[in-house]
Amino acid sequence: xxxQEIIELFFQRSEQAxxxxxxxxxxxxxxxSFGILQDFEDAEECxxxxxxxxxxxxxxxxxNPLAAYLCRITKNLxxxxxxxQQAKKRNLSMERxxxxxxxxxxxxxxxxxxxxxxxxxxxxKAIEKFLMGLDQKSRILFVKRYWFLISExxxxxxxxxxxxxxxxxxxxxxxxxxxxxxxxxxTI
Amino acid sequence: xxLSDAIDGLDDSFLTESLEYDKKRKEEARxxxxxxxxxWAVLAASLVFVLMxxxxxxxxxxxxxGGSLPSDGKTEExxxxxxxxxxxxxxxxxxxxxxxxxxxxxSEENATEPKSRVTVTWVYPYYGEELVSKKTVKExxxxxxxxxxxxxxxxxxxxxxxxGGMILDDNEEYQKKLFSGDGDIAFSxxxxxxxxVVQEAIRDxxxxxxxxxxxxxxxxxxxxxxxxKTTSYQGHVYFFPNEVAQDRxxxxxxxxxxxSKAEFASFDGDLLSVEKYLKEGKVLYxxxxxxxxxxxxxxxxxxGVLLTKDGExxxxxxxxxxxxxxxxxxxxxxxxxxxxxxxxxxxxxxSFPGTGYGEENQPEGSYAYTWKxxxxxxxxxxxxxxxxxxxxxxxxxxLELLRTDxxxxxxxxxxxxxxxxxxxxxxSFAKQLILGLDTGLVTDRGNDYxxxxxxxxxxxxEYYAENILPSAALELQTPEACGEMLxxxxxxxxxxxxxxxDAVLKKGQKKAAEAxxxxxxxxx
Lengths: 188, 524
Hints:
The complex is a heterodimer of chains A (188) and B (524). Chain A is mainly alpha-helical. Chain A has 2 domains: 3-85, RNA polymerase sigma factor, region 2, helix turn helix motif (Rna Polymerase Sigma Factor, Chain: A, Orthogonal Bundle); 92-183, Arc Repressor Mutant, subunit A (Orthogonal Bundle). Chain A contains 9 helices and no strands. The longest helix of chain A is centred in the N-terminal third of the chain and has 22 residues, at 16-37. The model of chain A has no long low-confidence stretch (mean pLDDT 84). Chain B has 3 domains: 27-64; 118-244 and 380-466, D-Maltodextrin-Binding Protein, domain 2 (3-Layer(aba) Sandwich); 250-371 and 478-522, D-Maltodextrin-Binding Protein, domain 2 (3-Layer(aba) Sandwich), CATH 3.40.190. Chain B is built from 18 helices and 17 strands. In chain B, the strands form 5 sheets. In chain B, strands 2-1-3-16-6 form a 5-stranded mixed β-sheet. A 5-stranded mixed β-sheet of chain B has the order 12-8-13-7-14, with no helix packed on it. A 3-stranded antiparallel β-sheet of chain B has the order 9-10-11, with no helix packed on it. Chain B is globular and about 105 Å long. Mean pLDDT of chain B is 76; it is low at 66-114 and 353-361. The interface between A and B is large, with 50 and 43 residues.
């Protein structure tokens, strides 16, 4: 079923909408959630919460593209759950991914005053510009690692690469990003 | 503000691209699986059919012998019958395939019998521009025919998925396409430090060793022996050394306007003592990546690890002299520049000699203190011959021709119109890199060059003999282990500019120590 047809079902308040959504995007949403929570049961629950969230938001929303919208909802719910559980569990892969980004942050000059610091939106735009300059595979690798928070090991599997090659490629992308952000004069 | 938050806000199109990629990959996997099952189904059906035919033939033979079951010694006959049936089905003789060896190629004067023309295909990554024009290829082939060589050449650029079809650094995709095609001459790819797909490809037997061709040919003598070592792996030469990967001695320049001759003469070569010479002007730190300075201490540096003269692996972040050097740079971080045009007093560089851009080798008005550099392995961005080629000899011959016959090299590098004087001679860096020719040896330089130009092969060999040593890394045959050590370079760069040297060093040492364990477990 096409995305627009699924959305129409939501607008008609038909429960079939959830069935179709689950059939079409369930595994993708579980993967996003599992990448963060590292627990199948928790991921399943989060995905169910996400279905509920979608049910509540559509209508009035008409998300396009639907897949990206579902990823965002699932990611946010999973991150909330992770924060809640953080005292009990640790997701080492995700921590590592955030550490990698923090290393870049650490290398950027600090702004003299809070007003001088780049806003989140400006920084997002700069990162988007940087990503557009990468080849497609590198761009996807970056988005999978730092947006979807997928571990290097799983990335190797998904991208048909050796783990070492994934690590090296990410290292090079980060290095380029660091240089790019410095050149752009990003301060935080 | 956090980088992770900014990434969270990426436009949907980035997420969609990633999701589409997964979808496409799954569809491809499903398609493969279908094909796989189809293949097995056809095979199974063929087998049943063959066995039926064989059964009929066996039954016929037994029936002719009076219908008795095979006695001892008949089994072999039945097997032969089955093989006969298979041969009948496949239309093949059942003999093992015979390897077709390429015939030696030279001019027709040397040929003992006429040979038909074959075409050698040269494959390289698309680089956003047409490296060799159709007009030039036509002219090269016309010339080859006129000169009596019985092969043509064609050039094939592999396009990537990047913007405008450029490969950029997506080397894996390039390698995949390279090895699934039918090329003869091949550029080995752009993979950088820490990526070892070329070594893997060599181990998988994708490239042909060149020794047999080099022994009979003349290309070996055109280049210094140590350069051939840089493109060798596990005892075999696999690539023609690329000019762009030229080796350099190391130099420390003292600007005359800031130093007297006596001051320069008092420098004893101890790099750590250079601090006392630093004056008000800038310190130019030019093209000194990694730990190249460590060559003054007698080490060679290769992808994260220092190697002693005896080939012992050491961690640069634990070596006293390396740390002292980084501390020195850190103390003078405000004075360091990478701008060659800055008002510098002292310059550290390994690429001033011959860097070119039309300048003299040595910066004008300076004294130079020089020491030898080390040649390290280089298998990336080189040109070799694919093992799958049926025209290896022809491929080798063309590569040799480009290094020994000026007219062919000029045609390829400048293009037909430039050779005919219709446009300016111009050597692009892309051509130097991707076609890998030694432009300094066989051509007049155009108006754009980056490498040191040697007037002759002999001059280049003499420069190497005087300035370059083979590094212990050339013997290090498991370099993929060193990919883990890239963390060392990262920390070396951080240490020069950090405000908290000790803390960063400690963190770097910890990471490097972990990587060293990994390396030591793999490197013999």
